[in-house]
Amino acid sequence: MIQELFDIYRRNFPFILRQKETVLWILSNDANIVLEHRNEKNTLIGAAVINKNTILLFCVDAEYRKRGIGTRLLAMAENTIKDNGYSQVVIGAGFDYIMPGVPTSKRYFASENEALCFGVDDTASDFFEKRGYRHSWNCNCFDMCLPLNTFSGNAYDVGDTIDGITYRWAALNDLDSICVCTDDAYQEFTGFYQDKTLYADNKNIKVLVAVAHNEVVGTLIVKLEDDEACLGSAGCTTVKRAYQGKHIAVRLVTIATKYLRDIGVREAYLSYTYSGLDHMYGYAGYKISVYYMMAVREL
Ligand SMILES: CC(C)(COP(=O)(O)OP(=O)(O)OC[C@H]1O[C@@H](n2cnc3c(N)ncnc32)[C@H](O)[C@@H]1OP(=O)(O)O)[C@@H](O)C(=O)NCCC(=O)NCCS
Question: How far is the CA of 261 from the centre of ligand 1 (A)?
Fold first, then answer.
């Protein structure tokens, strides 16, 4: 069943960049409730995966659309969530997420640096809007991508000092200073940085820090996400508030992206980010590949 769910996810969301293991892990959660629709050959052609009040996955295969299957699946999903005592349905992000919301080409607010993936349109967000859902953020939510053969690089490398700030790989003994920085910038990220495997000198996952006067003032996690697909990511970027607005984040992102290119990564991406950062990540060449309707409905 998990493999069938993974297959229908892959067929319907070819443009979502998530590690296969992560998606399989989320789909395997014992607390998931799965609603399914099968064709006459018993092939899974429609599915809703629910956890608490979140619909983690919702899709109907393209050739079976416009026959009411999605409408019926959604009504069943909403009833299940209501029967379990919730008064609100959320599409996308719950305890974890396969995708943050409903993938769409629709921008709810102004944006820049956009090059949407092939196949991304507003059919799904329209479907949910017609059924009472609204975009719950007061800005856009989106993923950004950069094919690294188009990355023109920059003059800077790991180890360089620019305007008095040194950009270097972090070691475990930087952890306290890193947490002071992330707590100041965005506390929700501190937990990610506390994972000690990040500092084990592994070429596939590293923390890049910006250091001023022996103090960490900026951080970023750079990862080879999927070896087979040659996909890498640069994310969880933070800059201490007193140092913001000096292009420290831009340099962290650009240096990390250059590193990914140099280790042979084909495409770099960052997911689940928000308005304003299309401008910031745009400096390194990233472009918005898909928007998300952060869909919510009160029951
Ligand atoms: C986002 C963050 C890392 C930016 O750090 P920074 O060093 O101040 O960013 P930079 O100076 O490199 O920004 C470069 C440009 O992007 C703009 N920018 C950066 N963050 C922005 C935001 N949230 N909204 C709008 N514009 C933003 C800057 O104004 C600047 O514009 P410019 O062209 O006029 O120079 C920092 O604000 C932060 O730590 N925020 C909390 C954590 C977070 O949300 N991280 C991102 C999640 S991936």
Answer: 23
| Count of domains observed in the chain | 2
Check which CATH number belongs to the domain holding 260 and give it. 3.40.630.30
In angstroms, what is the span from residue 258 Cα to ligand 1's centroid?
19
Residues 86 and 208 in one domain: no
Ligand 1 atom nearest to 240, measured from its CA: 39
Tell me the residue range of the domain where 180 lies. 148-292
43 and 158 belong to one structural domain: no
Contact 210, 165 (CB under 8 A): yes
CA distances from 229 to 11, 64, 68, 238 (A): 17, 29, 35, 27
Q: pLDDT tens digits for 92-107? A: 988 789 999 999 999 9
Mean pLDDT estimate for the chain: 95
Pocket of ligand 1 (CB under 6 A): 185-186, 235-239, 244-250, 273, 276-277, 279-280
- Ligand 1 geometric centre to CA of 242 (Å): 12
The residue that leads in pLDDT, 50 or 17, is 50
Q: Are residues 39 and 175 in the same domain?
A: no
Q: How far is CA 103 from the centre of its chain?
A: 11
Residue owning the nearest CA to atom 39 of ligand 1: 238
pLDDT of residue 154 exceeding 90, the answer is no
